[in-house]
Amino acid sequence: MIIDIFWKHRRRYGARRIVSELADRGIVACRRTVAETLKLQGLKAIQPRSFQPKTTDSRHRLGYSPNLLLEPIELNTVNRLWVADITYVPIAGRRFAYLSMVMDRFSRKIIG
To answer: Rounded CA gap, 18 and 25, in Å?
Structure first.
């Protein structure tokens, strides 16, 4: 049953998950026993790589734009100052999408 569970989950389940699956089926098994069984069969679970998106190199030697918001700006009406940001959102299948927003600083409404 240990080997069947291992292949049913496409080599993604290690000893701990297999023990949990066996417990769900009403079979009591020790983690070490399951680990030894897998080792004797030469089976090893696949460890997926951590997701690391490719982002901008912030340590470059090129010039930087000054932060114009450090100076106090009088905001007394809408549409005088907009700020924006962009980030990524992980989605299914090891993919990601970009999310960008534009906000009016006076009303704090997302306008785009």
So the answer is: 11
Domain map (residue ranges) of the chain: 2-41, 74-112
Number of neighbouring beta carbons within 10 Å of residue 21: 20
Q: How many CB atoms lie within 10 A of CB 112?
A: 9
| Both structure tokens of 29 | 């098994």
Cα-based distances in Å from 32 to 16, 37, 42, 51, 94: 9, 8, 15, 30, 32
Q: Which residue has the tokens 């680990």?
A: 35
For residues 41 and 3, is the Cβ–Cβ distance under 8 A?
A: yes
Task: Convert the pLDDT of each residue in 16-53 to its tens digit.
Answer: 999 999 999 999 999 999 999 999 999 999 987 777 77
Query: Are 90 and 96 in contact, with CB atoms under 8 Å apart?
Result: yes
Nearest-10 crossing angle of helices 31-41, 15-24? 120
